[in-house]
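Sequence in, structure out. Go.
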Amino acid sequence: TAVQGGEVRLGVRDASGKEQTISVKIPAGIEEGKRIRLKGRGQPGADGNGDLYLAIKIAEHPYFQRRGRDLHVRLPITLEEAALGAKIDLPAPDGTVAVRIPPGTSSGQKLRIRGQGVPSADGRGDLFAEVQIVLPKGIEPEGEEAEWIRKFSERHPLNPRAELRW
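Output:
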């Protein structure tokens, strides 16, 4: 709701103590800590009812993390998709978007999907998908798959820690 906007229903007490349910429109892209003013919904005063202010607290999402206008998500892919490239569907706030995984993609690499982040007056942020290669369980160290992996490593030697200095 904080990203796309929408409507929420809240229970509030009026001046007599009676609880009422009201609908509140949440603007798309609202940020944590912002306030929404509900004119005339507050306590009564000499000049009529005062205003009610709602402080916005945004709950965590199970997959997306928000950083300003940008959204970040982890994207699990297979070894085949990472090595050979693929076109996959990625959930985004407005639905699913097709993402191209370039051949040779490594874990930790970030893919930027422009315009799929949080809307604001300045435009819309981006969605960043951090690739995580997921290997199948049950590869036996002495099995046929392990032998394929060893042969592949022999044909394509790589030392990813060569430039690390401890």
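Check: The helical segments are 79-84, 144-155. Residues 144-155 form the longest helix (12 residues).
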